[in-house]
Structure formats: C-alpha cells, structure tokens
Amino acid sequence: MAGNDGVEEDDDDYMGDLSIFLPPPEVPSSSSKKRSGTKSQTPSVSKTKMPRTLNWQEKRKLERERKQREEDEQTLAGLESVIPESNVGFKMLKNMGYNPGSTLGKDGSGRLEPVGLEIRRSREGLGAREEAKRRERSKMERARYKEERKQRSEEELVEEFGFRKKNQWKGRLILGDYRKAEAALAQLENREIVEPEKDDGDEEKTEDEEEEEITVEVLNEILLKLRDEHRYCLYCGCQYESSELLLSDCPGLDRDDH
C-alpha cells in the first residue's frame, strides 16, 4: 500500500504542476529598464515663456505714469463738480454781486463758464503746439498754392495750345483762299500761274512758314483787285455783270460775311 500511495502522489503532483509546460518568463534588460524608467519619471515641461523682470528704471517709470494718471483723474473729477458755496473764491464773488448761474460783469458780457483746463505732461512750452499748428497750416497753404499754380499753368498751356491751333487753322484758310484768288485772277487775266519748281531733295515748308508769308492784308489786296477790276467775288464764286449788282448782291469782302 505504501508503494501504491507513492504512485498516486506522483500522479497528483504531475497533473497539478502545470508550470513545467509554460515558457520561461522574459527578463527585461537593464537598458530597457533605464529607458522605461526615464520616460515614466520625466515630467512634461510646458513651453511657457517666463515674464521678464523689470529693472528699477522701468519700475520707476511705470510708477510715475500710474501716479500721473491718478492725479489727472482726480483733477478732471474736481472740474466736473460744482464749486460749493463754502468755497472762499465763491464767497468773494458773491460779496461783489455775483449771482449763481449768471455771467460775470455788470453788463452781462462776461464769462458764464470757468476757464477750461488742459492737462499737459510734456516739457514743451505754452506756445509750442500753436507754433506747430501754424507751421502745419503754413505747409498746407504752400502745398495748396503749388497745386493751384500747377493747375493754372496747365490751363494756360491748354489755352495757348488751342490758340496756336486756331491760328494755324486760320492761316491754312487764308493760304487756301489766297491760292484760289490768285488762280481766279490769272484765269480772268488770261495768264498762267508759274509755280516754283521743287527739287526732290528739298524739304517742304512748314505750316508756320506758310502762315507768315500770306497775311490777311495780302489776301484782302487780291480780293479787292478781283472785285474792282473784274467784278468777281471769290466767296460768291461768280462774276457779276456790273459793279452795282456786285455791291447789292454780294454780302461782303470777307469769308465770315458769306
């Protein structure tokens, strides 16, 4: 029985211990332990920028600005409040005949409101701002004067250009009328007009030179000659039978009369 008991104990041990069938557990290396430990122990650092500490000069400047703002606020608050009757200045005015709500002076032409107060914290003089305004105003006036002068010059140039073009057009008309009158006079006198020959290399005359050669007086001379000697009017385009018909039927000597 002892032997049988030994066999049974061995069988029980064999079936009860299952760890012999499992693979051995992996042992982590020292380097992986260090890495895992480092990751777990390192806290997350935020990238917030630390505020810059101010030096004593900047702190003094900020403190002075703060005090100035407080003083300005107190001054403006005092201006908004009404002067009490217990004020020494108010009592002096009342003794001299001042009535609250009325203007200063006997005739009522004085001030109704106190003199305004303007707070200045800069070191500029009393007339510095007025001088700067005067310079700015003078600068604007000079700029406006230059602009007006430029515009006036452009208008004068346009007017001069139009006047010159008008004279050129009028000169071409005079030149054309003169050539027609000269051709009509040559035809009435039964002669030929000899025109000057031009070489191929010669440049033609400009319109300004032609206008200087033929004037209104020269044109009127040949028109009068046509009327007096041949009873012919260039603008009517006909020769009248008598001088009486020419004077009665022809409007006049100039182109504008026709």
From TrEMBL:
<dbReference type="GO" id="GO:0000776">
    <property type="term" value="C:kinetochore"/>
</dbReference>
<feature type="compositionally biased region" description="Acidic residues">
    <location>
        <begin position="197"/>
        <end position="212"/>
    </location>
</feature>
<dbReference type="GO" id="GO:0003676">
    <property type="term" value="F:nucleic acid binding"/>
</dbReference>
<feature type="region of interest" description="Disordered">
    <location>
        <begin position="190"/>
        <end position="212"/>
    </location>
</feature>
<dbReference type="InterPro" id="IPR025239">
    <property type="entry name" value="DUF4187"/>
</dbReference>
<dbReference type="Pfam" id="PF01585">
    <property type="entry name" value="G-patch"/>
</dbReference>
<dbReference type="Pfam" id="PF13821">
    <property type="entry name" value="DUF4187"/>
</dbReference>
<feature type="region of interest" description="Disordered">
    <location>
        <begin position="1"/>
        <end position="84"/>
    </location>
</feature>
<feature type="domain" description="G-patch">
    <location>
        <begin position="85"/>
        <end position="131"/>
    </location>
</feature>
<feature type="compositionally biased region" description="Basic and acidic residues">
    <location>
        <begin position="118"/>
        <end position="151"/>
    </location>
</feature>
<feature type="compositionally biased region" description="Basic and acidic residues">
    <location>
        <begin position="57"/>
        <end position="70"/>
    </location>
</feature>
<feature type="region of interest" description="Disordered">
    <location>
        <begin position="101"/>
        <end position="151"/>
    </location>
</feature>
<dbReference type="InterPro" id="IPR000467">
    <property type="entry name" value="G_patch_dom"/>
</dbReference>
<dbReference type="InterPro" id="IPR039249">
    <property type="entry name" value="GPATCH11"/>
</dbReference>
<protein>
    <submittedName>
        <fullName>G patch domain-containing protein 11</fullName>
    </submittedName>
</protein>
<feature type="compositionally biased region" description="Acidic residues">
    <location>
        <begin position="1"/>
        <end position="15"/>
    </location>
</feature>
